[in-house]
Amino acid sequence: xxxxxxxxxxIERNGWLTTPIxxxxxxxxxxxxxxxxxxxxxxxxxxxxxxxxxxxGIPHETIxxxxxxxxxxxxxxxESPRDLTWHLGYKGLLRVYDVYLxxxxxxxxxxxxxxxxxxxxxxxxGNLEAQSLFLxxxxxxxxxxxxxxxxISEADxxxxxxxxxxxxxxxxxMQFLARTIGTYLDRYGQEIxxxxxxxxxxxxxxxLQAAAS
Length: 213
Fold this sequence. Notes:
The chain has about 210 residues and is α+β, with helices and mostly antiparallel strands. It is about 35% helix and about 30% strand. The strands form 2 sheets. The protein has a 6-stranded antiparallel β-sheet with strand order 5-6-7-8-10-9. A 4-stranded antiparallel β-sheet has the order 1-2-3-4, covered by helices on one side.
């Protein structure tokens, strides 16, 4: 028995009715209005809940379809949307990143915490020289990146940020943005992680300081 048939069998044993639909299955409890949509890929087991219409410019089902079609590139839905925010995941070369997609009537915003522990320790370590080198490094990345930028939240989280008008967000643009985000995370994620701990590496700080002078 294949893996997804084992999963379906277990779900049905727990009292759910399963109906194949495009891109996955609809799960319903008998004599109840409770419905869940499920899809299975080689990387993700994705569940999503239908929700009431809110002030969003893209239908719920469209976003589900977009992410399902990106599963081969390592993307999936980690949690059902809360209000206007989707909790997605990107399985990169080294680790899985949380990706938050906020969709309003006008804009779609991506926010990706880049660091493993989210917060950059160098920003609160009291080492002003290391902090300055770290911030200069992020500014240089911003000067070279296309479409995406790096921002720092009030809680010192280092975030990869992308925003686009909702009216332009068809699947081809979604695919391009997913590829862009994935490329920057895979190329720079580990490097940014090292720089966020720069206060613990005086030798690296000295080398960077010398290179800048």
